[in-house]
Amino acid sequence: MVMVAPPGVQERRYALAQAMRALTVGGRLTVLAHKERGGARIAKELVGFGCTVQEESKRHQRICRSTRPIYVTGIEELILVGGIQVPPALGLWSQPGIFSWDRPDPGTLGLIGHLPQLSGDGADFGCGAGLLSRAILQSQAVTRLCLVDIDRRAIGAAKLNVVDPRAVFAWRDLRWDVPETRNLDFVVMNPPFHDGGSEDRSLGEAFVRSASTSLKPGGVCWLVANRHLPYEKPLASSFSAIRLIDQAAGYKIYKAIR
User: Fold this and answer.
1) Secondary structure element (H or E) that encloses residue 62, with its range
2) Average pLDDT in the 121-137 region?
């Protein structure tokens, strides 16, 4: 098995434990990660399982090679800790690695506080565990809501948290065409701006373009973002009108009309 280890501690240890569980005795494992995004910890974590590790550095990556020993220690606990669960601060099914997996995201809460009673067909772009979608579906005027996320774990959790029959789910990459999100009345989103631990503003810009092409003429997009992210230009180029609704606590909320 060869894997790129995720940067989050619980997520990475869960992935390593699953690798140990899946391998036969003597099976070879190669794991790599950027040295500043968890790579420096991989060898120690594998040794904790009872493995002997060969480690090297190349192009800012730590590369660890090992084989599965006869006896592996501690993997059951890490699989449990990194698996799907209900974090008390969130109160919804979630899993390490999902966006804001163990507590409500302040930007999402701010957006929920400003949303009107939406109506018609809509979508939640980057739905995560479904916190925003649950708020949207409080409006009985919503006829259909498509929850879209690139993370299969997020879609799995959202299906447990959003049991409304008006909800449909799409495990999709919004940088490409998503057939389930055509001819919509509204799109609501808290777009991502990290990819593999590094800031990538093009992700949010792609979400903005996707929202524009998904909406009917006159359809509305509600967006929340960190204040330092310059989404004004892509919004202006994709929508006929944009309005800053609020900016507080490090976030800004926009309403844009197709």
Assistant:
1) strand 61-67
2) 98
Residue 184 to residue 160: CA distance in whole angstroms: 24
- Which domains does the chain possess? 2-82 (3.40.50.150), 106-257 (3.40.50.150)
- 8 Å CB contact between 200 and 173: no
CA distance 258 to 248: 25
User: Of 248, 257, 219, which Cα lies nearest the Cα of 107?
Assistant: 248
CA distances (Å), 4 to each of 29, 39, 229, 236, in order? Answer: 11, 9, 28, 38
In tens, the pLDDT along 150-180 reads 999 999 999 999 999 999 999 999 999 899 9
pLDDT band for 193, please (50, 70, 90 cuts).
confident
Among 234, 149, 221, residue whose Cα is nearest residue 187? 221
Q: To the nearest whole percent, how much of the chain has pLDDT over 70?
A: 98
Coil vs helix vs strand at 117: coil
Rounded Cα distance, 148 and 99, in Å: 13
Can you spell out the DSSP letters for 148-188? EES-HHHHHHHHHH---TTEEEEE--TTS--GGG-SEEEEE
pTM for this entry: 0.91
**Angle (CA) 197 237 126, round 5°:** 35
